Amino acid sequence: MNVPIAFTLFRIALIPVFVAVFYIPAPWANEVCAIAFALAAVTDWIDGFLARRLKQITVFGAFLDPVADKLMVAVALVLLVQANPEIWIAVPAAIIIGREIAISALREWMARIGEQRKVAVVMLGKFKTGCQLTAITLMLYGSGDVPMEYFRGGLVLLYMATSLTLWSMVLYLAAARSLLRAEGTSAPPSQERARGSGSDGEKRTVS
Questions:
Q1: What structural domains does the chain harbor?
Q2: Could you tell me the pTM of the whole model?
Q3: Residues whose CB falls within 8 Å of the CB of residue 145, separated by 6 or more in sequence, listed in order
Q4: Which residue, 161, 98, 7, is CA-closest to 106?
Q5: Which residues are 197's β-sheet partners?
Q6: For residue 196, what is the DSSP state?
Q7: Alpha helix positions (H), the chain
Q8: Which of 24, 35, 40, 61 has the most crowded Cβ, counting Cβ within 10 A?
Q9: Cβ atoms 118, 179 nearer than 8 A
C-alpha cells in the first residue's frame, strides 16, 4: 500500500466518523461533522496530488479513489435528506446518487469490453465533484445552530452540482453511445481489433 492509497483509505474511514457525530445530540455536532467531512474532501485532492508527484499511480488507486468519493457523497446526502425531508433536497440528492450508480455501472461495462478510456474522468467531472463536496460541507455546517446563509449557500451549490451531474452523465453516455447501440448486434470494437489479424498473418480491416 502506497501513500496516496493510505489517504484514500483514511477518507473512507472518516465516513462512519462524520455519520456518528451527525447524530450526537449536542450543539457542536453539526460543526464537527462538517469539519470531518471537509477533512475527508481535502484528502481527495491530496491523494491525487501525491499519486502524481510521487509517481505512485496504480490501478487499485484509480479504482478506489472515485469509490471513496461516491461513498462519502452518497452517505452525506442521505444524512441531509433524513434531517431535512423536503422535496427540494430529496430530488437533487436522488439525481446525484442515481447518476453515480448509473455511470459506475457504465464504467464497469466499458472496462469489460476494453473501452474504459472512452468514459475516463474528465475535468468537468472533477469540477462537479468539487462542487458537490463544497455544497455538502456548507449544508452540514448550516444544519446546526449557525446562520441559515451557510445552508442556503450550500443548497445553491448543490443545485449547481446537480446540473453538472446531469451534464457530465450526458457526455459519458454520448461517448459510449456507439458501443451501446452495437451491444447485442456485434462484438465490441476491442474484440474486433483483437481479431484484426488472422493466424496466417493476413491483416484485416475493422469495419
A1: 3-177 (1.20.120.1760)
A2: 0.79
A3: 27, 30
A4: 98
A5: 203
A6: S
A7: 3-22, 29-53, 59-83, 87-112, 123-142, 149-182, 189-194
A8: 40
A9: yes
Q: Which three cell numbers stand for residue 112?
A: 469489460
* pLDDT (0 to 100) of residue 176: 73
* Per-residue pLDDT tens over the stretch 110-129: 777 666 665 555 677 788 88
What is the end-to-end Cα distance of the chain in Å, rounded?
A: 43
Could you tell me which of 48, 76, 189 has the C-alpha nearest to residue 134? Answer: 76
What Cα–Cα distance (Å) separates residue 111 from each residue in 116, 126, 142, 197?
A: 5, 20, 40, 23
pLDDT digits (tens, 9 = 90+) for 49-94: 888 888 888 888 888 888 899 999 999 999 999 999 999 999 999 9
pLDDT of 92: 95
CB 51 within 8 Å of CB 4: yes
Residue 201 pLDDT grade (very low, low, confident, very high; cuts 50, 70, 90): very low
